[in-house]
Amino acid sequence: MKEFKVNPEFAITDEQRLRSLFQAQHTLAIQKCQSALAKYAQAFIRRSPFICIGTQNSDGKADVSPRGDPVGFVKVLDQHTLAIPDRPGNNRLDTMVNILSNPSVGLLFIVPGFDDTLRVNGQASLVNDPEILEGMRVNDRIPKIAIVVKVDTVFMHCAKAFRRSQLWNPDHFQNRDEMPSLVKIILDQTTGAPSDDDEMRKLDDQLEDQYKKTLY
User: Fold this and answer.
1) What would the pLDDT profile of 113-168 be if each residue is shown by its tens digit?
2) Nearest CA to 46 among 107, 136, 106, 111?
3) What is d(CA 176, CA 172) in angstroms, rounded to the nearest whole number?
4) Average pLDDT in the 38-46 region?
5) Most buried among 30, 98, 145, 197, by the most CB within 10 A?
6) How much is the pLDDT for 24?
7) Which residues 6+ apart lie within 8 Å of 101 measured at CB?
8) Pyridoxamine 5'-phosphate oxidase N-terminal domain spans which residues (predicted)?
9) 8-state DSSP, 181
C-alpha cells in the first residue's frame, strides 16, 4: 500500500480556520461542562464496568488503555476525586509510566446499553494506600496500585457516536472468527505463527488458561 501524505493545501493548522468550518457551539455544550462530580456523574460512574483512559508521555506521545471490572469499580472518593484499580495485565505499564511524566488524563466511562457516555479530565497520581486498595478487592485479590484522579472537568457526552455505530445492536455484532486469534495475529506479525492448526489451537488455549488464572 502506498504511503499516504496529507496535501498541505487541505491541512487545518490553526483554530480559527478549524472553527470557521463549523457552527457555533450549542449553549448546552458549554453549560454541561462541570468542575466537580455532581450526583448524576457519580451515578453514571457507579454503573460503569468499563472505561478508557487516555494519557501522554513527556514528549506528547499519546496512548489509550481500556479498563474493565465489576460495575462501579471506579471509586468516587469525593466530588473532585476518583480512584481506579490497576488489575493484572501485560506489565507494559504504559498508562502508569505516562502518568509519572505527565499527570494529565482523560477518562471515558461507558455503561452497556447506554448511548450516552461520561467524560472526565483531570490530574492523575499513583498510590498504594492500603485503605484505598482494600476497597477495590475482587475475588480476594487486592490491586497493587490505584490511579487517583483529581477532576478538572466532567460532562456527559451525547449519544450520536454510539447510535451511528449501532454499538449495542445485536444485529450489527460481528463474528470474531472472521479474524485470526490474538495469539496468531501477534505471532504472524513477529516470529511467525505455526502452520499446524492443532499447534495454533494449543497456543490459543494457553492464552485462555492464562486469562482464567490471572484475571485478578
Assistant:
1) 999 999 999 999 999 999 999 999 999 999 999 999 999 999 999 999 999 999 99
2) 111
3) 12
4) 97
5) 98
6) 87
7) 57, 58
8) 41-157
9) -
Q: Can you give the length of the chain in residues?
A: 216
- Ranges of each domain in the chain: 26-165, 174-214
Give the distance from CA 169 to its chain's centroid: 21
CA neighbor of 166 nearest in space, from 177, 176, 174? 174
What is residue 34's DSSP assignment? B
CB 111 within 8 A of CB 48: yes
Q: How would you write 103-146 as a 3-class SS string?
A: CEEEEEEECCCCCCEEEEEEEEEEECCHHHHHCCCECCECCCCE
Q: pTM of the prediction?
A: 0.93
> Which residue has cell 485462555?
208
Residues 38, 44, 45, 48, Cα dihedral to 10°: 180
What CATH topology corresponds to 26-165? Pnp Oxidase; Chain A (2.30.110)
The letter for the amino acid at 21 is L
